[in-house]
Backbone:
């Protein structure tokens, strides 16, 4: 499997979730299974089956996070010196050439993308169009609603 880019902040969030699942959720589920077992017949015990199902989801998520972290190429954005170019991890302020609206995005890995927080995936059409651009350049994006143009107003590595 290839290395997957991940910002240092994204890796820290995954480590926090992993720690929570292992130290809080696992013991809580084990306790719920023990409690449900004490109620008797397991065939018709809904609490037992629900706890076992929750255990399956939790263990699956733990394995998923561990795999992501094992295959991650963690990039500390603050140490980048890309000479003003848009690269992975850069925070970019854009102006929509048609509407004049201004938006700010940080280009991150697929697993940490969240458009509501202004985090866009490196594989998104906007990010692909922005890579390599500098302040003042215009990026043409083939969006589902048609072609859109964005001017790069600023590039920061924060």
Residues:
């Amino acid at each position: 499997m290839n290395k997957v880019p991940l910002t240092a902040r994204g890796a820290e969030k995954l480590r926090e979730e992993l720690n929570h699942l292992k130290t809080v959720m696992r013991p809580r589920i084990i306790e719920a299974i023990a409690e449900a077992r004490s109620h008797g017949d397991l065939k018709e015990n809904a609490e037992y089956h629900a706890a076992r199902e929750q255990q399956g989801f939790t263990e699956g998520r733990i394995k998923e996070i561990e795999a992501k972290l094992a295959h991650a190429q963690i990039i500390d954005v603050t140490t980048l010196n890309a000479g003003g170019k848009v690269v992975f991890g850069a925070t970019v302020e854009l102006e929509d050439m048609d509407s004049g609206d201004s938006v700010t995005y940080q280009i991150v890995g697929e697993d940490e993308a969240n458009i509501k927080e202004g985090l866009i995936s490196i594989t998104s059409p906007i990010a692909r169009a922005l890579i390599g651009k500098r302040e003042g350049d215009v990026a043409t994006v083939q969006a589902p609603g048609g072609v859109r143009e964005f001017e790069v107003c600023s590039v920061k590595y924060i």
